Amino acid sequence: MSELRYNVATRDWVVVAPERARRPEDFHAGRPITTADRPAHRADCPFCPGSEDHTPGETLRFCDAQGNWMVRSFPNRYPALTPESQEGRPKGNLFRRRRFGSGTHEVVAESPLHNTTLGLQSPAEIEQVLRAWRQRSQDLFHRPELEHLVVFKNHGLSAGCSQEHPHSQIIGLPVLPSSVRRRFDDAARFYQKNQGCVFCEMLRVEQEEAARVVVETYGFLAFVPFASDSPFSVWILPKRHSHCFALAETTEIRELAGVLKQVLARLYLALKDPDYNLIVHSANPPGPGSHFFHWYLSIVPRLSRMAGFELGTGMYIRSSPPEADAAYLRQVNLEALEGPKS
Amino acid sequence: MSELRYNVATRDWVVVAPERARRPEDFHAGRPITTADRPAHRADCPFCPGSEDHTPGETLRFCDAQGNWMVRSFPNRYPALTPESQEGRPKGNLFRRRRFGSGTHEVVAESPLHNTTLGLQSPAEIEQVLRAWRQRSQDLFHRPELEHLVVFKNHGLSAGCSQEHPHSQIIGLPVLPSSVRRRFDDAARFYQKNQGCVFCEMLRVEQEEAARVVVETYGFLAFVPFASDSPFSVWILPKRHSHCFALAETTEIRELAGVLKQVLARLYLALKDPDYNLIVHSANPPGPGSHFFHWYLSIVPRLSRMAGFELGTGMYIRSSPPEADAAYLRQVNLEALEGPKS
Fold it and tell me: Half-sphere exposure (CA, 13 Å, Cβ side) for A208?
């Protein structure tokens, strides 16, 4: 019997239709190979150590005690947006365009190893990646031409990833996308109406109900949202209200690394290294009204497809109830995790 | 050099980044088989003639002069929503849910032939399909529990289609999805500000610029929108302002069938029977304020994937400029079209 659920933070309805249910095992049927099966180094990979001259203009490098890089960032060779800031004349009222789409597009190589992924890396290594995201975000926020910044990771082909080497991306935009603006506006409206943050309230209720929680620590809650639109998608929220990821404390970054490791390792084992997108949802530090927002990470395994219904309505149909996804992720035995071959 | 474009009707920005360009030929590379290569009839197909008892509860049947059905509709066996209208008690303010997700979910079998598709069918056959969509929409609009209706078609695996037999779907919803409500609100706001419909204005400018037009008739314009978010996606708009597809005149339905045939046949040849979604964007007949909306069809070939950037911002990155897509579709030689094998 199906059920309609409403997500207060995104204001979207979702259809939970267990008649169409698939078991968790159905999602990874026949998956032939995982990240860890790849070689540890590929000479033809532009992100592997030794190919640094294929990615000029390095913007950040974190090294180990021996001076080998652990994480580095550099401009994307095939950028969606480039830093030229010249703007074309808008053409009439109706067709607005900006030539040169000024902005930035960087890649963060997350490890020197070709055959690892965040879910297999240690919390200490993941912490370096999160610190790189925070550092580059802080640096880029000083550019006056950027209106919004988004940090994201595409893992696997179905998630839109074209380079095997573990990496994430940072795009700086000269416009605030309307869907992001709406999220900020909605958060502000909720705040004014209820004298509180919608995400803080969501945290409180998810903690209380507990049925959808995957991992909880002192400062973070990872859960499958009550009305999440996609199977096994997980949100990680800091319990401390803050609108901007780039303003996270170093102790928070460290704690988040541990939570992220837990969540991604569980997904890796439960769904056999699924393709997924990870997105940092955050407001820029100085945005007007943006302090009503509450930053968080969302992890979206790419297990289902958008079809005509989703494109036409913005609503999603999911088969498994979020409670079942969370229970399945909680019971995963993390000791079964095997790292990459060296 | 990339460019940012703004869609006034959807209020979304799109990035046109030709640095990442693919040629139209790249989109269909290696496509092994098309719809027309399938058998004309499959005994194990629940939608083929002879299997009518697998789809009980027929809601519509259009027949030819010999009494054989040409188009029929029936309830989906695996419905996303079912008609039970009982509603669960909402649980607190934050977590709204409706049990039994009352609604309807119907399938329209578009042809007795297993191996055809709208792009290969004749305008007269397509007209029957459009009339079926209109008829079922009119019937369902009388149900007081339905707040919104969406007619759509998923063609091919990447478009979320699980049955080969040519068919479309109609879902009736007990809620108005927020993204649809926003579209209505945006249209109303534009109307109040500019004393006119945003879609009528878009029609005027697209006609004038002509560079993105694919097909034009007396009453309809098919074009690749200035800021369309996905390669080769086409909008078909009636020139007469009307908010509701179900209220279209029979002469309009006939003309639309011809335009749709043109557009889908061009896509079929240009991209070798691409997977696509077709959506009828329409307001319900009596919706408050909904007459500011303007109904239209969108056809979205599934050639690119949503990745972290799109999920995080709602913005899309496309490589080919819409003008190039339209030019490529216009130069297709429709005489090359081969129908299904019998």
Answer: 9
